[in-house]
Amino acid sequence: MKIGELARRSGCSIQTIRYYEKLKLLPIPSRSEGNFRLYDIKIFEQLKFIKRCKDLDLTLDEIRKLLSIKSEPNQECDDVNRLIERHLERVEFKIAEFRQLRAQLISLRQACSENNKAVDCGILKQLTKDS
Amino acid sequence: MKIGELARRSGCSIQTIRYYEKLKLLPIPSRSEGNFRLYDIKIFEQLKFIKRCKDLDLTLDEIRKLLSIKSEPNQECDDVNRLIERHLERVEFKIAEFRQLRAQLISLRQACSENNKAVDCGILKQLTKDS
DNA sequence: TCTTGACTCTATAGTTACTATAGAGTTTAA
DNA sequence: TTAAACTCTATAGTAACTATAGAGTCAAGA
């Protein structure tokens, strides 16, 4: 499988795949006579693993750690659990942050009563004054 | 006021202030004889405005637009309203995304029943298999 | 006055995770 | 054979910072 097909089937772009290879998240594939990268099923599976982790908003370093644990079957999976736990906490924190931000924006939006000139703009006034 | 004091009082770092000057989000300040930047109250206020917008998660380009409207008091503030509205929509979308992500992580966490070897790890298994 | 530590300067490079592009080589189907 | 699609490496750019090197300035204390 060449890189274009791998990209289509994995949902990652060609450049991203090369990037991951450079970061050593993916192994170096064999090459054709014309120097094209040739991917086997194992690398394809690894890329799909990475993509699933990316879709979970894990950082590339976290993904690297999971790959490392995965590659050593006798290693304890306590670290996996902990990593996911910490990630969940961060996501929950982000949710809280964004909800607070939403409340702020809703409140700010209410400062704009009518179509005014900028000099009378309730939103700009709120953004200007000290709280 | 020199840049260190401005940084402390605004909550932005020295490098960030220089960065904003380079981006023309802040005007070029006067200089002392020793070539130190000297900031007056107007620039300080502008930086605080930028900081408040940053705290609302607006992009620098959005902040640039607000500053532009603000600097022309006869301009319609309809654009301000629209910008905040769109931002609010994006925040709400992000909340939905993170909530979905949270559900996925909670579900994933439940795949890990006990302290296993990596080869038996429920989380890694979930991340490996096709959905 | 001298010294020294704190402060400031510019230039440059790095962070994270990509993304784009230039110029060149390879492949494939008509 | 030809031309379009594909692939390659190298380099630079994106957004929003952040760090650092090496040099200059300032201010307080001895």
TrEMBL record, chains A, B:
Alphabetized GO MF terms: DNA binding; DNA-binding transcription factor activity; metal ion binding
Single Gene Ontology BP annotation: positive regulation of DNA-templated transcription
Keywords associated with the record: DNA-binding, Transcription, Transcription regulation
Chain segments annotated as transmembrane: none
Pfam family membership, one: MerR
Domain HTH merR-type: 1-69
Signal peptide: none
InterPro entries hit by this protein: CadR-PbrR, DNA-bd_dom_put_sf, MerR-type_HTH_dom, MerR_fam, Tscrpt_reg_MerR_DNA-bd
Family matches, as NCBIfam families: CadR-PbrR
Protein name listed in UniProt: Cd(II)/Pb(II)-responsive transcriptional regulator
Gene source species: Aliikangiella marina
